[in-house]
Design a protein that fits this description.
The protein has about 280 residues and is mainly α. Helix content is about 85%, strand content about 0%.
Length: about 280
């Protein structure tokens, strides 16, 4: 009879081996995608190939990003007012809220919406093609599925998520402005004055840099999950769910890493701004 400790050790080893193998397969998949995107740009830089993906990723995500962005901005204003008013700093709410929106909330919010709406759709679509053996048929006809299906979708996520992030920033800022100036005793002049004082060009640049990384991660993970889903309808559903869960976790981890790295980079490039912020 196998002891519980032996069984637990064996299961741990199996889990480590499976995780390592999965990471290796994903790395090979990502490297092949990078190689085609960089070395063969003509394969995806065509409107007939890229246009439908840009529309699916970008235009069809505008409404959900606008609604969530506006409500997040309004919630930040409502929840933050009492704390600012207790310190007598309610006039500065616009600067603090918009700085947080452009650097952190806008990119993450747009990325999560994209992972849920687009990432699951990509995984389900490619998973259905795998289950019905359409991917195998493309390989038989000497058509590389990664070049034809993966690269345009990944590049559409990379190109459109920064646009959605800018849109989320603008709508979130306007939502907060409407609440702060409409419900509380903050003037338009104070709101935008402190916004200009608190928000520098580095803040939206940080958000855009994050959005590029988030878009790349979402596109690669979604396509990989679709390409490697299990058979049957359950396999396709699991691929769509797994795509969102994995993308969400990677977005959160990437946000932490990039926030730390870009913050350190800002302190190196512009130390005076950090001194001003601290003071």
């Amino acid at each position: 009879m196998v002891s519980p400790l032996t069984a637990a050790t064996a299961n741990l080893g199996l889990t480590i081996l499976q995780t390592t193998a999965e990471f290796g397969r994903f790395s090979i998949f990502a490297l092949r995608t990078f190689r085609i995107a960089v070395m063969q740009p003509r394969s995806w830089l065509r409107w007939r190939t890229l246009g439908p993906q840009l529309y699916s990723v970008g235009a069809q995500s505008v409404i959900v990003v606008a609604i969530t962005g506006a409500f997040i901005g309004m919630i930040l204003a409502i929840e933050g007012y009492d704390q600012f008013a207790a310190l007598g700093q309610e006039q500065q709410m616009g600067g603090v809220i918009n700085s947080a929106v452009t650097k952190q909330i806008g990119p993450v919010l747009a990325a999560v919406m994209l992972a849920g709406r687009v990432g699951g759709n990509i995984a389900a679509e490619l998973g259905s093609m795998r289950v019905t053996e359409q991917l195998d048929a493309m390989r038989v006809m000497a058509a590389d599925p990664i070049r034809t299906l993966v690269v345009p979708r990944v590049m559409a996520c990379v190109l459109m998520l920064p646009v959605l992030t800018v849109y989320s920033d603008i709508v979130g800022s306007l939502g907060a402005w409407g609440v702060v100036t409409g419900l509380f005793k903050v003037t338009n002049a104070d709101y935008w004055h402190y916004t200009s004082q608190f928000v520098s060009a580095w803040d939206p640049a940080t958000g855009l840099a994050k959005s590029v990384a988030f878009g790349l991660a979402i596109g690669l993970i979604s396509c990989y999950k679709g390409f490697h889903c299990n058979e049957g309808a359950k396999g396709v559903g699991d691929a769509a769910t797994g795509s969102f869960v994995a993308s969400f976790l990677v977005i959160i981890m990437l946000n932490l890493v990039l926030a730390s790295f870009l913050g350190s980079l800002q302190s190196l490039l512009d130390p005076e701004s950090m001194k001003t912020l601290i003071s």
